[in-house]
Structures are given as C-alpha cells and as structure tokens.
Design a protein that fits this description.
homodimer; about 550 residues; alpha/beta; FAD/NAD(P)-binding domain; five-stranded parallel β-sheet; 17 helices; globular
Chain lengths: ~550, ~550
C-alpha cells in the first residue's frame, strides 16, 4: 500500500496518541499525520505527576516529554492543541473539531483514524464537590494546580479519597511536603487489585509512616469556608479536617465520541478492539486508556489503563494504519507502585480474582531475601503466588517488600505470558551473584514452596485463613516454634510454644486428635515443624505460610 | 518405594551436596543420609568470598551457612568432614573413604549415591607457581589465606591472572583494600563469555577505576624473594611487580573419582547426566559443578559451574534418589557480575557463540534508561540482543551499565526459557511506574530496535563492525548527527558533522554513491537520520547501533 496523500488523523495527544503519531511517521514518510487534542499540553508523563507534587521531580517541564514544534520540525506531524474532536462521521470519514481558542468549527477528513481519547477521573456528584482545593490528578493542568496549592504552604491536612495506586502515591508525596494525610477508602482494604492479606501489609507500612488510613468508610459530602475552599470531609462515620482533597476513586474511559459515532463499546465499557487495535468500523482504531484489551490469563476482555500498554497499543495501531501488520495480544494487569519504602506489585490474577474466575486455586505466601543473606543491605520481600491446581500453571503473583520487587514481578509477568507452570518457574536459570539474589532467587524459593503444596507434599495455610478459622471459633492448636526470645518478644495470642529444636522430643505435649497449625517468623521453621509432626504420626497438621511476617 | 533402612551417600558438602542432603531428608524422613567431604568446612558461600576479602562482608562466619551439627540435630544427617572419598565400587555399591584426620580407611555401602565433587581452579604448571602469596580462590581455606595476606598490610601490588568473573570481582575488592591491581588476560578481551564489544565497555570502566588491564598477554613465570614470596609476574611482554597473585584462569570439574569408577564423562569433560541427574550407572547421580548440563538454546551439552544451578540440581537428584520424580532441563548460561559501579550480565548465547552455532544472527545494541528519564537517579544501561534471523527468536542478551541490569537479564532468561520471539518480548506486560522503568521498559525498547532490523525496516550496524570497516580501509562516510556542542566535545575521527535538525535541508552535502553510516550519542537520532536519508533517496545508508555509548 502506498500512503501518498493519505491522511492519518489521531484524536488524543498524550501517551498512546503521540506514540502512534511518531511510529506512523517512521513507518510512512509520506503519509499526512495530524493529531488533535483538547488539552494545552501533549506528550506528558501522567505517571510522574505525584513525584512533581512531592518535589522529587523539581521542574514541571520534565514531565513534558515533547512539544508540538518538535513533532512538526522533526516528523512533519501537525499537532493541534486546544482542538476538541466533537463528532466522527464514519460514513464520510470526517471528524468535526472545535478550535477551543478561536471557538471555531473545523472538519478533518481521514483515511485512517486513531482514537486515543484516554480516560478521566470519576468525580462523584457529592454535595460540596465543587468547593476549592478539591482536586483530581490526571492532566497537566491538574498537577500544576495541586502543586501551586501545596507550594502555597497553607495545607496542613489533606484527605485522599480512594486508596488505590494514585491515592497511595499522592499520600507519600504529600507527606514528603510535610502535610498530614488521611486516606479514606470505601472498600475494606486499600489497593483493591491486591488480595486483602497483601494489601494489609501495605496498609500497616503506610500507617507506620504517619498516614491515617480509614477503610470501609464512604465520603458523603464536603464542607467549606466562606471563601469557598474545602475545610471538612464528611464520611459515613467521621468528620475529617481537610485543607485539600485529592479525589482518586477511579477513572473511566472517554468513549462518548466513539459511542456517538456508532463504534462498539465492549463489556468493560471501554472501546472494543481486536488484536490489530481495530474497532468495528473500518479504518478506525482505538488505543490507550479508552480501549479495551484481553487478559492473557483468562482470555477475557479487560480494561487496564496504563501508560506502558498505551505505548504498545500506539505502535501496533500505527503499524497497521500505515499498511503494515502487527498485533497486540493483551495484558496481564501488571502493576507496581512505590509506597514510601515499600514496593508493591502484581501480575496476573489475585487469589480472589482467580477464585472468581472459577480456577481451582492453590496459593502460597513466602517471605525471602532479595539478595544473598550475607550480603549487606539485603532486605526481605513477601511473595504471594497463585496457581491453578489442575494445570499447575501459575495464575498470578503479588509481591510486597522493602527489597527488590520489580525484578521478581517482571520475571512473573514474562513467565505468565508463556503460560509457565510453577515447576518451570522453579527451574528458571536466573542471574545469581550475591549483590543481586540468593543462589536460589526468591521467586524460585516461592515456586518451590507452592510446588510442594500443589503436589501435596506439604499443607500450608494462608495466615488470613488461620485468622478466619479463629474468628469462626474453630478448635485448633496454633503452635509457635520460634526460639524462647522470639516468643517472648511477641506472639500470636492463644498460641502454644515449643521451640523447633525441642519439638521432636516434646510431641507428647500435643494431642493428635486436634488440628495443629505451626508458625514461625517467615514460614521455613513452621514447615520443618510440620514435617517433624507428620513424621511423628500427627495426622492433622498444617503450617502457616509466611507466618508472622505475613500475619496482620 | 519405601526408604526404610536405605542409605543415601553424598560425596561433597558445599552447595549441591548439602542442598541434596537437606532436600532428601524432607522427601524421606526415614532414609539414612550421609555426607562425606574432604574439606573442613561445609555449606559455605563460595560466591561471597571476594566480598569478604574486600571487607564488604566483615565476618568469615557469615560465609558459612550451616555447620555439620545443624544437619545432625535438625535433619539427622551425618556430615563427615575431612573424609575423602577415594574410590567408588559400582558393582558392590560401596565407596572407600579416608578419614584424613585419623588417616584411616573406611568403607560405606550405599543404595543411592550422589556425586557432588565440585570443581577446582586450574593451576598452570609455570615456573615459580608454588611461591608464597600466589593464591587461587575456591575453598574456605583459600579465602582465609587471602584475607590474612591482605590484612597483613604489606600488599601494595596485586596481579590477577585471568580477567573472568572471579578475576574482576577480586580486582574490585582488592582496590577497595587500597591495593594497586593489574589484571592480565591471555585473550584479547576480558570476560570471555561476553562479546568483545560489550566486554570492552567493562574494561573501560575497570581501567577508569584505576585497575591496569592487560589483554593478549600470557603469564610465563613468577619470581620471588629470599623468603620465598612472590615479587614479580613475568609475562610474554612485561615484568609486573606483585606482592600477591590471584590465579583465576578458570576451573575444571572434579571427575577423577567418577571416571575411575567407570562413570561416563561427557564431551564437556564434566560428568554426563540425564535430566533426572542420573549418570550411566544405576543409582548414581551427579550434581553441581562436577556435572554436565544442557544449554536450553542450543540443546547441546554444556558445562556451567554455578551455585544457582548446583542448588537446583541438588533438589532434583534428591527427589529422584528418594523415589520421587523430577527433572532439570538445562541452563542458559545466565551470569551476572558486579564490577565496581557497573553491572554486567548475560543470558543465552553471545553473538560470537550464536554465529559459531550456525545461526543466521541479527543483533542490536541499544542504550536505554533504567527508569523514567525524568525520575531522579535514572541511569543508563546498554543492551545487546542477539536473535535468529530465520525464526526471529531471541538467542541471547548481554547487558552492561550502572543502571538496573539484573532485572532485565532475568526477564530475558525467563523469555529464553520459553523460546520467545523478539516480537513477543516487545509486547511483554512489564511493571511500569517511574521509579522502576520507562513506560516502555529498556528491554522492550531494545526488542523493538532489533525487531525493526529483523523485519528489514532499518539497517543498523554494530559499532565494532564500523571499526572493522574503517580498519579495512573501506570507503564510507561516518556522519555525526549530534548537536554542535556535542560534536565539539569529542567525535569519532574522520567523521562528517551535520546536526539532525539540519540534515533534511543539507542532504546535498552528501554523495549518494557513497555508503553513509550515521551516529549520535545513543542511536536514536542516528536512526532518525537514517530515515531522513532513506526518505531523501539515499540508497546505501546504515545507522550505528548504540553509537558513541557503545563505541570503544
């Protein structure tokens, strides 16, 4: 196909749109390429915004990767800012565009159209929502407003509504600016994509850093002062003082333009596309935060708005729109967030999601060092692996810790892409030297622990399930097998204590008719105790995965 | 199978042997398990030794993970140190063992035998080799001697013979102790497993840190003083002063015991095993540094002595020897080494190895940031990817840089395990947030660059190939497209300079009959210049991969 005189029109000028424009130009030197965006800024780094507010990034210009002039001069791409696409006519292949500066209506014809309209923050219609100093964080103008408000020096108390990724990033960065922060989350846990047990580890850390975290409480309204600025957040249960409010309750895809044009919307409410990023309408593509994807573990449609996905979708759409052929098979919902000293990541399905999808789920929680234990500055991470009992394939992982987490989640994401079994993960030839890993990397150790559970060699039980049993009033012995000193420094209420090295000689203290659940600091000695008891003939024994380290 | 009264004998008490012993006990509570080793210490961390010499690890006890008493008390495993296995009788299933302390011969019967005799340093029989203060680094007694020598405070000059991983780790750690270090390498590059172009980046860094690096020079002999201590290393070309010499010219597997017993040795000269870690002799297994493996990319036998592999082999042999079933499919030759501020890693095949194996090789060198470029402390890494032109599968990767390297090599190792294509790697859903990666991770960027080369969209040329062309006196234009300032601060001799933003309007300065090779700082602008020239009708254009950053 020759692209001479053909016109590629792109609606949207942030991650997906500008990536598509630049890639299209590399693919086709002759095609006419136009980008229209209603925003003033293009090509900015949305994910970097919290760090500009926290003054980790000093200059807002650093968030803007490219200016329109760069695209004009370097790539002969026309980027029209403050130009809002208002209607797509798929029959005549025309887009109506309003020049917002001049309030003038224009019409652009296209041969190929890429829709990259992004997503927008959900703003619940609560009383007082339009008071001053209530912000969402999505666009450059959002971030400049929040930064100015913080720089004003009058914000003592901030309330963040929503304990998701952006909420927690904002919590950290506002604390860095000396502000007292409260996070209010409607659900019974922060970080909803994670399982509750892992999210609780994060919540504990955030609270230790001085952030108040309130779960299971909903914001009802906001109150302000005479100058119209917010002063109070009123929830179902509380009145919280607030000089500033960040709304981070979620985002929704911008699909109105597409929908009105007759373009199919998917079950996820984002624009439906195939793996070539084509919509149901010929020559119209959708990419980035407004487009749907496929979950590589479930094979089902999923909507995951992430900059990394946007960039990949942008490339694929550009290649196809310029006459080439490329596909984007889907995502794993991989995510990572830095929360103070903690790194928090997920790939694939959580235990809760896997159960909901109907898998026969086995999972394990395994604390492990991120480097050789004798190497200085080795830190722990806690890995939760989730697998399918039937196929023994990994379904997902969640990792939390002060040690190196991103490496392990990327190993998992790569393995999930290829449908790896837990056994295959345990045999990976990962790079080993003391500054980088244990001789068996933390991921391999975790896979071995889960493998033992899958093959029935051991019976581990997740800490939250032990807590549930206790809450239900079930009769079982919780056996602490740590040393005398560790036990005295704190233990789980109601436990029995026999140190591991005395266990073999003191089994007579235990009743074989009772269920016994062993625990230690991180799970290793609990598993050894499990074996000692099994070998001694105890029939109903389990050990607590992750033990104290994963107990919240 | 019941293991009651069965005896598992293990020869060797370091990584593989002790891992096998501990795992066997977990698999079988009743089997009798005995470990014999001629060494005084067991279960020590060989890979940590250089860091003890450098005083990064302060206490030698930290290198010893477990004592024999631990195995006796916790696992009822008998560990006999200073007991040397001298002969295996595979017919009567007996092993002759000499108690080195009491100089007494013993005989042990076995039902299952695991050979984990490890490897030993190659000591070339050169004149003066037995002078004082000439060391190898392999065992606990080696490391204690070297540390004592350094602690003595009289070592001003050290010569390291061999520029491999251990040689470079030792170079760094001796520099940390204030010693002037010279590395002598017989080959024309340090780090022989790497391609020369990547190794040269490391060599440059090491030399900047004050280490003298001599390549293409062989050690002939050593001279000493009246008290028998080394003073001089004499090479083919030089006399080097030396108060201490570290020999790190390589290791060889300890196979004598196995060979004399009639156990098959493989083409790699290590003990031949199948994927169950079984030798050709029934009930005899071999694991760790004395055993062969399979290269997962070539499918051919390979010998890679690494602690991480030893641990995995130990588990597999233990499971099989106790009546279970497990397999170890092979390795990727994954390696990583910290060299001062540089992280250096490899997985799969180098370009040189891939060519030698007969693959149709395409490769790319791509510098990229390890985090979002606007995030503080983002550092560069340089990625070399090697692929098969026919299948478009990745064959290997080498990564060097001050940024995060281990994560990327582990992603590659995982992808190689599953036979990933370059395209699949470019679509991986890796974890993205500014503190961890660019929105398209460095590995994805590199895969995209290589993908463009594989599909013929761009024509990149590796820097070393440009140097070869120049050395051959070929006629071509080397075109620097960086800014005026960058050009004035240093450029490749004999280049022509046209800044990228002027290139489109100054193409008349170039001769279409000549080959043109563009370069910039890291390759991105060189690739843009390539496209501008191609679009302007130039027929014979290439761009230099990695450009100045990869030019040595």
């Amino acid at each position: 196909m020759t692209n001479d005189n053909k016109h590629l029109l792109i609606i949207g000028g942030v991650a997906a749109g500008m990536k598509a424009a630049a890639k299209a130009r590399r693919e086709s030197p002759t095609m006419k390429i136009t980008v229209v965006t209603d925003e003033q800024y293009i090509s900015y780094a949305g994910c970097g915004m919290p760090y500009f507010i926290g003054d980790i990034i000093k200059d807002s210009k650093k968030l803007i990767l490219r200016e329109p002039l760069y695209f004009k001069n370097m790539h002969t791409i026309d980027v029209l800012t403050r130009h809002q696409a208002t209607a797509i006519d798929i029959k005549s292949k025309q887009v109506k565009v309003k020049n917002l500066e001049k309030n003038k209506d224009l019409t652009f014809g296209y041969d190929k159209l890429i829709i990259a309209t992004g997503a927008q923050p959900i703003v619940p219609p609560l009383p007082g929502i339009s008071l001053g100093n209530i912000f969402t964080l999505r666009t450059m103008s959002d971030v400049l407003k929040i930064r100015a408000c913080v720089d004003g020096g009058k914000v003592k108390n901030a309330v963040i509504v929503g304990g998701g990724l952006i909420g927690l990033e904002m919590a950290e960065n506002l604390v860095l600016r000396g502000i007292k922060v409260t996070v209010v989350e409607l659900l019974d846990q922060i970080l909803p994509p994670l399982d509750r047990d892992m999210a609780q580890l994060v919540q504990k850390h955030v609270m230790e850093k001085g952030v108040e975290v309130i779960t299971s409480d909903g914001v009802k309204s906001f109150e302000g002062n005479s100058s119209g600025a917010v002063t109070t957040v009123i929830t179902d249960k509380r009145h919280l003082p607030a000089d500033m409010v960040i709304l981070s309750v979620g985002i929704k895809p911008n699909t109105k333009l597409a929908q009105e044009a007759g373009i199919d919307i998917g079950t996820t409410r984002a624009i439906k596309v195939n793996e070539r990023m084509e919509t149901n309408v010929p020559d119209v593509y959708a990419i980035g935060d407004c487009a749907e994807s496929v979950h590589l573990v479930t094979g089902k449609p999923v909507w995951m708005a992430l900059g990394s996905t946007a960039a990949k979708m942008g490339r694929v759409a550009a290649i196809n729109a310029t006459g080439g052929a490329d596909t984007f098979k889907g995502v794993l919902g991989t995510l990572i967030v830095k929360v103070f000293e903690l790194h928090v990541a997920k790939a694939g399905l959580s235990e809760r999601e896997a159960v909901k999808e109907g898998f026969q789920v086995e999972s394990a929680i395994v604390p492990a060092g991120d480097k050789a234990h004798y190497y200085p500055e080795t830190k722990d991470i806690i890995i939760k692996l989730i697998a399918d009992k039937t196929t023994k394939k990994l379904l997902g992982a969640e990792i939390v810790g002060e040690g190196i987490v991103d490496k392990r989640i990327d190993i998992i994401a790569t393995a999930l892409t290829f449908g790896a079994t837990v056994d295959q993960i345990s045999k990976l030839d990962l790079a080993y030297a003391p500054p980088y890993a244990m001789s068996m990397d933390a991921i391999i150790v975790a896979a071995n622990v889960l493998g033992n559970k899958l093959s029935g060699k051991t019976a581990g039980i997740l800490p939250y399930k032990v807590a549930e049993k206790r809450d239900r009033g079930e009769d079982f012995v919780l056996l602490d097998v740590r040393t005398e000193i560790e036990y005295k420094n704190g233990h789980i209420k109601g436990c029995k204590h026999i140190p591991l090295d005395k266990l073999a000689s003191r089994t007579y203290e235990l009743d074989n008719s009772q269920e016994i659940i062993t625990y230690c600091r991180a799970g290793l000695r609990a598993a050894q105790a499990y074996r000692i008891l099994k070998n001694a003939g105890f029939r109903n024994v389990k050990y607590m995965d992750g033990s104290i380290m994963a107990w919240t």
